[in-house]
Task: inverse folding
């Protein structure tokens, strides 16, 4: 037990250290549900479209994966403060684990270098609650070898980074409480070197200054500004507590650490997400950070598909849990109409009405695949002579309508068919073939013929008769015209044959019958032979 010099007895405790008012039932503050909100976002956008939403990240009340080292001053004057922590140890650890289930703990204490062990590791970092409680229970404030107020906690802090097996993904925190300043240098460390070692290891220091409740030596944890220096350089906190409130203050200060929020974004091809902070990104643990998140589709985003982004929000470099991972699912609208292809074709007329034409028409959509188009006029319709436009359309499931155009041309390239059969004379009789004169070449001795012509399209083709001798052409005649054709040197000549509708045509050679339709097609000639004139 440390024995103070007589001058220390009856020392007045500073009022400021004893006036801290804390709730005896303090618990880890409820801040709502830590995580990102909204955690899942879905929308539908056209290619090239974008949307901006607000994201709120509520940090956990205690930083993620805390590796907490409980470091106590176990000199004689600390008995009431240590008793408070020991009697509430189970509650402290349980509440921390409730807020951060991945928390682990180590237990250590310090004294003065005049003591046999100025720094004792009672329990290495562990997740075993029973071992942690047992380590705290081994704090024994019944020794003290120094004769001055200062202890050697600077040396203890300097040894922490190499003594404690902090996790690679942990958030190292030292929670120390004591009532006196430290020697400097202390156990081989200066205030500067010990602080630098803590900073290099990423260790935050929470320092709690407690008053002594007896007449032993103490001068206040931060009487030399050492605790302020360490906590400010390591991003920790410094506060005061009455001995019966130390456990409450430990919990409250673990919720009073800086929490820096960062994020990583991973997106599918065709979509991107950018975040702009609209509030400070470093807050007190339990605080919130807000972002404007802009989600943008590229112009070639796959229409009809869903593209996704994942945004992982980190607190002090670690993702605290799945609730801090946001997913974005954007359905890419189908804005492209189907491609409609229509066959254009040229067909031969088969009747005066034209032709019945079947043609090919197809449609393919970038999302729906093959579609059946609707066409006007439809395939299989009767198409008139000439060029008829065809319009086809197809509508996809998204309501996009595509059009395709073609032409159907019906042409007449078939010439008329002509015939020159023997016909009746004015009396209505067909003279006997050959007459009374020899007819070695199948000549019509009397020269009576009917000029016949038929055409697939033209119901009234023009009929012509050409004198093979002189080249003279008679006509046009209507199909069915009756003639009497005679060869004579006096030809060519045309005259009526009596009162009949028979024309008497006289040529210098045999006659050639041909016809032309309204499309300009001319038939091959057919001979209408008659005997040559007498020599």
Result:
């Amino acid at each position: 037990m440390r024995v103070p010099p007589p001058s220390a007895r009856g020392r007045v405790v500073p009022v400021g250290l004893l006036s801290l008012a804390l709730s005896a039932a303090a618990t880890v503050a409820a801040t709502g549900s830590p995580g990102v909100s909204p955690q899942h976002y879905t929308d539908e956008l056209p290619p090239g479209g974008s949307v901006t939403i607000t994201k709120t990240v509520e940090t956990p009340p205690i930083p993620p994966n805390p590796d907490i080292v409980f470091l106590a001053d176990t000199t004689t004057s600390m008995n009431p403060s240590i008793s408070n922590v020991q009697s509430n140890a189970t509650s402290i650890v349980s509440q921390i684990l409730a807020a951060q289930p991945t928390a682990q703990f180590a237990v250590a204490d310090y004294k003065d270098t005049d003591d046999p062990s100025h720094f004792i590791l009672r329990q290495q970092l562990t997740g075993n609650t029973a071992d942690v409680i047992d380590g705290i229970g081994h704090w024994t404030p019944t020794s003290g070898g120094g004769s001055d107020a200062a202890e050697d906690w600077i040396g203890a802090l300097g040894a922490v980074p190499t003594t404690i097996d902090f996790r690679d993904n942990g958030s190292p925190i030292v929670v120390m409480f004591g009532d006196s300043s430290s020697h400097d240098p202390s156990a081989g460390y200066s205030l500067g070197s010990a602080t630098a070692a803590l900073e290099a290891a990423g260790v935050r220091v929470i320092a709690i200054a407690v008053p002594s409740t007896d007449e032993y030596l103490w001068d206040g944890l931060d009487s030399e500004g050492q605790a302020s220096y360490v906590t400010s350089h390591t991003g920790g906190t410094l506060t005061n507590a009455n001995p019966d409130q130390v456990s409450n203050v430990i919990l409250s200060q673990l919720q009073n650490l800086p929490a820096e929020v960062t994020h990583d974004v991973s997106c599918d091809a065709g979509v991107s997400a950018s975040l702009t902070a609209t509030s400070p990104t470093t807050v007190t643990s339990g605080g919130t950070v807000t972002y404007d998140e802009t989600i943008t589709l590229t112009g070639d985003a796959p229409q009809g598909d869903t593209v996704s982004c994942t945004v992982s929000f980190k607190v002090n470099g670690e993702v605290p849990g799945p609730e801090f991972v946001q997913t974005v699912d954007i359905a890419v609208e189908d804005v492209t109409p189907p491609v409609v292809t229509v066959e254009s074709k040229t067909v031969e007329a088969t009747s005066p009405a034209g032709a019945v034409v079947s043609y090919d028409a197809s449609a393919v959509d970038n999302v729906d695949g093959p579609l059946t188009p609707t066409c006007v006029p439809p395939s299989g319709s009767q198409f008139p002579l000439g060029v008829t436009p065809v319009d086809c359309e197809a509508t996809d499931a998204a309501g996009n309508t595509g059009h395709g155009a073609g032409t159907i041309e019906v042409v007449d390239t078939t010439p008329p068919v002509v015939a020159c059969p023997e016909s009746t004379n004015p009396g209505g009789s067909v003279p006997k073939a050959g007459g009374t004169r020899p007819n070695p070449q199948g000549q019509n001795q009397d020269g009576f013929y009917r000029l016949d012509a038929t055409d697939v399209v033209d119901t009234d083709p023009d009929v012509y008769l050409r004198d093979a001798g002189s080249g003279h052409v008679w006509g046009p005649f209507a199909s069915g015209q009756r003639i009497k054709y005679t060869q004579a040197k006096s030809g060519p000549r045309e005259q009526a044959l009596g009162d009949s509708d028979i024309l008497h045509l006289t040529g210098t050679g045999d006659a050639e019958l041909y016809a032309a339709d309204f499309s300009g097609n001319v038939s091959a000639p057919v001979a209408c032979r008659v005997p040559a004139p007498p020599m």
Notes: The longest strand covers residues 401-411. The helical segments are 15-18, 79-87, 89-99, 129-137, 153-163, 191-200, 226-234, 246-254. The chain has four domains: 6-29+62-254, 35-60+259-332, 339-411, 417-528. The domain at 35-60+259-332 is CATH 2.60.40.1510 (Immunoglobulin-like).
